[in-house]
């Protein structure tokens, strides 16, 4: 390490450690994070002389390194289970299954049918707006062209249609178990 980096390390070492400790809330993780930060600083030592505010630069590196580690851990935990070293389950059981169950599929079909029936109670203009946006998945601009109105009008109609549909669904006492308040 150069004298410049030695000076920076001596001046900001405790600050970076306390920031890492505040972020991780764990002494061991804070030390690991701090080590990663200083490795990045050393790798980018040619930029140190160009930096006007060293403390802010170090803080940014620390925050970004923490975010990167957090995201990496989230991605890893999404696909891995906490298991002992020897697994008693096949590795394929650890891969998430993104398919929806038969029960969820039946429920989805039932809810879709209910919503479509209740949409029939809306005015035609609101039905079309909802249909274009949610079923045909047109953009607001495409809907405004199709309906020959401004995008603001499409937004208003979409808002009013959703509000009215919610009112209709909430008013149906037979749907109390399905509709959430």
From TrEMBL:
InterPro entries: RNA_pol_sigma-70-like, RNA_pol_sigma-70_dom, RNA_pol_sigma70_r2, RNA_pol_sigma70_r4_t2, RNA_pol_sigma_r2, RNA_pol_sigma_r3/r4-like, WH-like_DNA-bd_sf
UniProt keyword terms in alphabetical order: Sigma factor, Transcription, Transcription regulation
Any Pfam family hit: Sigma70_r4_2
Domain of life, source organism: Bacteria
UniProt key word Iron-sulfur: no
Similarity remark: Belongs to the sigma-70 factor family. ECF subfamily.
UniProt-recorded name of the protein: RNA polymerase sigma factor
Lineage of producing organism: Bacteria, Bacillati, Bacillota, Bacilli, Bacillales
